[in-house]
Design brief:
The protein is an alpha+beta fold. The chain is 30% helix and 30% strand. An eight-stranded mixed sheet has the order 1-2-3-4-5-6-8-7, sandwiched between helices.
């Protein structure tokens, strides 16, 4: 990606850029850090996002939000309602693991998952992470398409990875670490 595209992408994500739904309506969304005071809301939203039983419980989200090594963001509407989230755990080295990424069903197909993913990756780069990994169901072709378009690659098939016995894919992406050049 050339420098001008990168700058444009950075400022677009920092602003309150509008997303368009398939129906043509315009809504504003904002990305903010997700904090422990939104625990109950993220638990409820998670249950709506993942109806196949791969839901994290209250305790898991509490752990993710209270561990300073983890990174989490939410997408909210102009009214402040959470409609999406992403959680990343720091591995023992300089790699991250996306543990979950969800968008409310009625807010899908508006580019919110992509915005969350891009925002999280930018944060990881700034913190010096060199790579990021995630797991995705083999049947979740929409999520796989998002990840493939974002330069993730399938590195392994995980047999019977999910509770219902479905296989998963382990996907990874190398992150180029941003280095500020102020010499110009």
């Amino acid at each position: 990606m050339n420098l001008l595209s990168r700058i444009k992408t950075f400022f677009t994500r920092q602003s309150s850029a509008s997303d368009h739904s398939d129906a043509g309506s315009v809504s504003e969304y904002f990305i903010h850090p997700l904090r422990i005071d939104r625990l109950e809301e993220v638990v409820r939203l998670n249950a709506r996002c993942f109806s196949r039983g791969e839901n994290y419980n209250h305790n898991t989200f509490g752990f993710l939000l209270n561990d300073a090594r983890n990174i989490s963001y939410m997408v909210v509407t102009k009214a402040g309602t959470m409609v999406g989230f992403i959680f990343i755990m720091r591995a023992h080295d300089d790699s991250g693991h996306i543990t979950t990424l969800g968008v409310a069903p009625e807010h899908r197909r508006r580019g919110l998952a992509k915005r969350l993913l891009d925002h999280a990756e930018d944060s990881l780069r700034k913190k010096g992470f060199s790579s990021v990994a995630l797991e995705v169901r083999v049947s979740n072709t929409a999520a796989q398409e998002l990840y493939l378009q974002s330069d993730y690659v399938v590195v392994q098939t995980l047999k019977s990875y999910y509770n219902d016995g479905e296989d998963g894919y382990l996907m990874m992406k190398a992150l180029e670490v941003w280095q500020e050049d102020f010499s110009r």
